[in-house]
Design goal:
Number of strands of chain A: 2
Structural class of chain A: mainly alpha
Strand order of the largest sheet of chain A: 1-2
Oligomer: homodimer
Largest sheet of chain A: 2 strands, antiparallel
Strand content of chain A: under 5%
Amino acid sequence: MDQLLFWLVPAASVLALCFAWYFHRQMMKESEGTPQMVKIAAAVRKGAMSYLRQQYKIVGWVFLGLVILFSIMAYGFGVQNSWVPIAFLTGGFFSGLSGFLGMKTATYASARTANAARNSLNAGLRVAFRSGAVMGLVVVGLGLLDISFWYLLLNAVIPVDVMTPTHKLCIITTTMLTFGMGASTQALFARVGGGIYTKAADVGADLVGKVEAGIPEDDPRNPATIADNVGDNVGDVAGMGADLYESYCGSILATAALGAAAFIHSGDTLMQFKAVIAPMLIAAVGIILSIIGIFAVRTNENAKMKDLLNSLAFGTNLSSVLIVVATFLILWLLKLDNWMWISCSVVVGLVVGIVIGRSTEYYTSQSYRPTQKLSESGKTGPATVIISGIGLGMLSTAIPVIAVVVGIIASYLFASGFDFANVGLGLYGIGIAAVGMLSTLGITLATDAYGPIADNAGGNAEMSGLGEEVRKRTDALDSLGNTTAATGKGFAIGSAALTGLALLASYIEEIRIGLTRLGTTDIFVGGEAVSVQDATFFDFMHHYDVTLMNPKVLSGMFLGSMMAFLFCGLTMNAVGRAAAHMVDEVRRQFRDIKGILTGEAEPDYERCVAISTKGAQREMVVPSLIAIVAPIMTGLIFGVPGVLGLLIGGLSSGFVLAIFMANAGGAWDNAKKYVEEGNFGGKGSEVHKATVVGDTVGDPFKDTSGPSLNILIKLMSMVAIVMAGLTVAWSLF
Amino acid sequence: MDQLLFWLVPAASVLALCFAWYFHRQMMKESEGTPQMVKIAAAVRKGAMSYLRQQYKIVGWVFLGLVILFSIMAYGFGVQNSWVPIAFLTGGFFSGLSGFLGMKTATYASARTANAARNSLNAGLRVAFRSGAVMGLVVVGLGLLDISFWYLLLNAVIPVDVMTPTHKLCIITTTMLTFGMGASTQALFARVGGGIYTKAADVGADLVGKVEAGIPEDDPRNPATIADNVGDNVGDVAGMGADLYESYCGSILATAALGAAAFIHSGDTLMQFKAVIAPMLIAAVGIILSIIGIFAVRTNENAKMKDLLNSLAFGTNLSSVLIVVATFLILWLLKLDNWMWISCSVVVGLVVGIVIGRSTEYYTSQSYRPTQKLSESGKTGPATVIISGIGLGMLSTAIPVIAVVVGIIASYLFASGFDFANVGLGLYGIGIAAVGMLSTLGITLATDAYGPIADNAGGNAEMSGLGEEVRKRTDALDSLGNTTAATGKGFAIGSAALTGLALLASYIEEIRIGLTRLGTTDIFVGGEAVSVQDATFFDFMHHYDVTLMNPKVLSGMFLGSMMAFLFCGLTMNAVGRAAAHMVDEVRRQFRDIKGILTGEAEPDYERCVAISTKGAQREMVVPSLIAIVAPIMTGLIFGVPGVLGLLIGGLSSGFVLAIFMANAGGAWDNAKKYVEEGNFGGKGSEVHKATVVGDTVGDPFKDTSGPSLNILIKLMSMVAIVMAGLTVAWSLF
C-alpha cells in the first residue's frame, strides 16, 4: 500500500508536464498579431536566447570545475559520496531547463497576450496566466521527476546491508540533497546574472529615456527598450524559474532527509520510509490541486478588473484550502505516526506564507497607508523618498520575522509531540511546514510568472503602436500580477528560511556519514564515548561544542552576517556599473544617430542587448563564487562549529535583509505608480520625479539583491553539506 | 602592593577631571569675539540647554519607572540584587553628566574657536581641540570615578563569608555591571533623541535652504540654521559623550566580571583580584597617557593644514604606542598569570581598532577611489548615487568583520593559553582587547569631539559675517576632524562588538547568581547533576541547551537580527517625519515673513528649535522602549536560550548593519565634498545636486541610526543581565 502510494509522486510529475505541454500548445495557437508585433517579439526572443546561451556557457565552466573537484574528492580521496558528481550535474541541468522552458514560453506569449488584450482584458489574462502556468507546472513537474528518478535509482543500487537498515534511507536522502547543490548553483547564477541584466537595462533605459529625454517607458525610440524587455524574461522568468525549482526541491529533499534521520535509531524502517515519502506525497497532491486551481481561474467575457482579481484569488485560495484537507487525508492514509499533528505543521507553513504575503502586500501596495505616505514624502524631494523607503523596508521586517518565529516553534512543537527535546521530529516538522508552503507552487508560481509576461506584452503593445487602450489593459494585468505575486514572494522567502533551518540538520547527518566513511566510530560527549551511528543531534552539538560561547561559532556568525551584506553590496555595485555602461551607450546613440528622437531613424537595439549581456556575465561571477567559497574556507579554518555559525548567521541576517530589500523596492515601485495615478500632482510633477528616483533605486533592491539572498542562504547550506566530508577529513587530518 | 596599585584607578580619574577643569578654564579665558558672535553663541547655548532639560525630563520618567520595577523585583520578590536600583541610577546620572558637561563646554567653545580662527588656523585648532579634550577627559574621569566608588563601596558592604571567597568578587563585579544598564539607557535616549534632533534640523535646513532657496549652509536667512547648530551640540557632542561613557564603563566592567568568573573555581582569591583590577589599571594608565598625548598636540604659529594633521596623528599614535608598552609593564608589575599573552590581547584590541579605522577612512575619505567613484556616479543622477553608496557601504563591512573575527580568535587564544576549552580566560581576553581599544579614549574622543565644535564655529563665523577666510579655516578644522574621527569611530564600533561578546559571559554569571538566590543548587548536564557554584560556562550551555539546533535559540537569533533592522527603521522614519515638520515650518516662514530672503527681516529661529526639540522627544521614546522590552519579553517566552540567541543575533547583524550605515553615510558626505572641491563640475552642477541627495540620505544613516545601533547592542545585553533573575524565576515558576 505505502509502496503504491509512492508511485503517486512520479505520476503527478508526469501529469504536471503534460498539462504544461497542453497549456503551451494552447498558447501557441493564438495569433501573434501584426507583423510589427511579430518582429518585436522575435527580437526580444533572440536577445533572451542569446543571453541564456552565454550564461549557460559560463555556468558550464563553473560546473566543470566543481565536478572535477567533487570527482577528485569522491574517487581520489574518498571523502565524498561517489554519486555526488552526477547528482550535482542533474540538479544543475534540470534547474536550468526549468528556467529555459519557462522563458521560451514567456517570449512566445508576450505578443500573443498583447494581441489578445486588443479584444478584452479577460482574453489577455487567459493567455498570460496560462503561459505563466506552463512555467509553474514545468518547475514542479521536473522537480518531482528528478526526485523520483534518483530515489528509485539509489534505492536499487545501494546495497541493503549498509550499516543498519535504517541507515540506507539516510544515505539515499542525503545523497539526493547534493543534487540540490547543483540546482542552487544554477539558480544563483540565473538569479544574479538575470537580475543584473534586467536591472542594468531597466535603470539605463529609465535614466536616459524617462528622466533625460522625457520619452515614456518602452518607447521604441529608446535604444535600451528591447534590452529592457529581454531583461524581464531572463531575470524575472528564467531567473525565478531556476530559483523556485531549487526552493521546491530543496525543501522536499531536506525534509525527506530529516524524516530518515528522525527514525535512524528506532530501527523502524517502515515508519522511516513513510516519513521520507510524506513530503513527496504532499508535493504530488499539491500538483494535482494546483492544476485544479489553474482551471478554476475563469471569468466571463466582459469581466472587470475586480472580477479578475477575485478569480485569481479564488484559484490560489481553493488550492490552499484543498491542500490542507488533502494533507490530513494523505498522512492518515499513510498511517504516519502522529499524522494529525504533522498535518498541522503543514497548515502552519501555509499560514506563515500567507501572513508574510499579506504583510508584503500591506507594506508595498499603494492601496495602503505605508506606500501612500512614501509617495507623500516625495513632496520634500528624492532624499526624503529614499529615507522613508528605507525606513519602511526596515520596519516591514517585523511581521515576517515574528511569523517565521511562531511558525518555527509551532511546527517544531506539533511534529515533536510538544517535546522540545525531540529534535529529530521537531526539525522534521519545520521541514514539513516549508513543504506545505511550497506544495501549491504550481499555481502560486503561475500567478507570479504571468506578471513579466504582461509587462512584456505592454512593451510590445507600446512599440507596435497598438494604442492607449491595449496598453492600459496590459498595465492592469501587470499591476494585478503585482498584487497576487506578493503572496508568491512571501511563500518563496518564508520557505527559504524554513528550508535553511531544515538543511542545518542535514548538514549534521552528512557529518555523521563523513565520519563513518573515514572510519571514526565514536564521538565524545562530556568525556563519554558515543557511537557515531547512535549519536543524536544533541550529541553532535556537544561533541563539536556548537554552543553560543564557542568563539568559532561566534566568528562564523559574524562572517555569515557579513556574507549577506557583502553579497548584496557586490550585486548592487554590479547593477550600478552595468547600468552606467548602458546609460553611456544610450546617450551616445541619441547623440550620434541623428533622428532617433523624431522617430526618423531606428536605434541600434542589438548593441544595448550586447552591453547588458556582457555586463551581466562579467559581474555575476564574483558574487556567485564567493557564495561557494565562503562555506568551504570557513569549514577548513573553523571546522564544524564555524560552518554552523556561518550558516545561521547568514540565514538570520540574510532573511531579514532580503525582506527589507524586497519590500523597500516594492514600495518605491508602487509609490511611483500611486503618483502616476494622479496623486500629489501626478505624472511630470516634482513629486513624480522624486518617486522615480526611489523606483530606480528600488529596482536592484527588489529584483537583483533581494531575491538572490534567498538562494545565497540555501546555496551556502548546500555547499556545506556537500563539503562536509572534506571538513571532517581536514579536521581529523 | 596590589592593593596599592588599585589606588592608581581613582587617582587617574581625579587627574583626568582636574585636567578637564584646567582645559575648560583655559578655554573660558579666550575672547568670544564680536557682540554678534556672542549673541549667536548664546542662542545656540540656550537652545541646546533647553533641549537637554526636556530630554532629561522624559528620561527621568523612564528611569523612575524602571527603578520602581527593579525595586519591586529586588525588595518585593527577591529576584534581584538589592543594589541594582541605586547602581542603575548612578550609571544613568554619570552618563548624563558626561554629556551635559561636554556639551556645556562645546557651546562655550564654538564662538571662541571662530574668534581664534580669525588669527590663525593653529589658534583655532588649539581652542577647539582643548575643548574636545575636556569632553574626552570628563568621560573617562567620571567613568573610572564611578567604577572606583562602587568597587570600594561593595567591597566594604558585602560580607566576606558569602558562599566561597571567590564568589564575593563575582557578586561585586556583576552588581557593578548593572550601573552599566543605567548608563546604556541614558546613552540610548541621548543618541536617539540627539540623533533625531540634529538630523531633523540638518535635513530640514538643507532641503529648503540649500536646495530650494539656493542659499549657502549656515546662512542667517535660514530659519533652521540655529536649530542645526543646536543639533550638532545635542547630537554629536552630548549624545556621543553619553554613548562613549557607556562603552568605556561597559568594557571595563564586563572584563572585570569575566576576570572574577575565570578564577571562581580555582579558589585563588589573589589572582582573581588581579584579574579584576587589570582592566581598571589599563584604563587608568590610559588616562595618563591620553593627557600626555593631548599635550603632545602642538604646532608652531604658522602651521599648515598638513602640519596640523601630523600633529594630531602624532598625539594619538604616541598614546597608542605608550599604552602597549605600559600594559606589558603594568601586568608584569601586577604579576598576573600569563601576563605576557594577556598583554598581547590588549595589542590585538588596539590593532583591530586601527584596522577598522583605516578601513573606514579608505571607504569614506575623498582621498581614495571608493568615494571618488561615488562622486562620479552622480553623473547619471541621484538614483545611481544612492545605489552606489549602498553598494559601497555593504562592501565596506567585509574588512571590519574579518578584523573583529581575527581579533576575537587571537585575543581568546592568547588569554586562554591557546586552549579553546579554556572559555573563562578566553572570554576574558576578548574583554581585555575591548579595554585596550578604549584605553586611550581620553585623546581619541578629544579628536572626535572637536569636530562638531569646529562645525559650530563655522556656523557662528558664517552668521556673524566674519568673512571667507575664517570660514575656510573652520571648514579645514572640521574636515581635519573628520579624518581623525574615523579612527575614533572604528574604536567605538569595534569595542561595542567585543564588549557585547564579553557581556554574554556576564549574563551567564548573572544566571548563576539568580539560581543561587532562588535556592537552586544543581543544574543537569547530560543527566548528571553539577553544582550551580561549580558549573562552567560549558555546563550552563549544555544545561540550557544553548546550541544551534535548539529552536528557541534559532528563534531568538531571528528576533535579534530583526531588532537591529526594526530599530534602524524606527529611527530613520523618525528623522523623516521630524524633518518634514521642519521643512514645512521653514517654507511657512519664507512665505509669511516678508523680507527674510533679502536679509531685511529676521527669521523666527526659536520656533525651529522648538520643532526639533518636540520632534526628537516624541520620536525617541518608542525605539528606546523597544530595546528595553525586547530582551525582557524574549526571556519570559523563550528563557535563557532565547535571550542568548537574541543577543547574538542582534550583535552580529547589528554590528554589520552599523558599519554599513556609518560608512555609506560618511562616503555620501565626502562624495559631496569632493564635488564641491571642484570635481565633476563643482558646486551648483547637476552632479553636485545628485550628491547632495546622497548626503541628505546619509545624514540619518551616519548620525542617527548607525551610532544608535552600537548602544542597542549593548543595552539589550545589559537589560538581559539585569533581568536575568526574573528570567530564571519565571522559568522555574
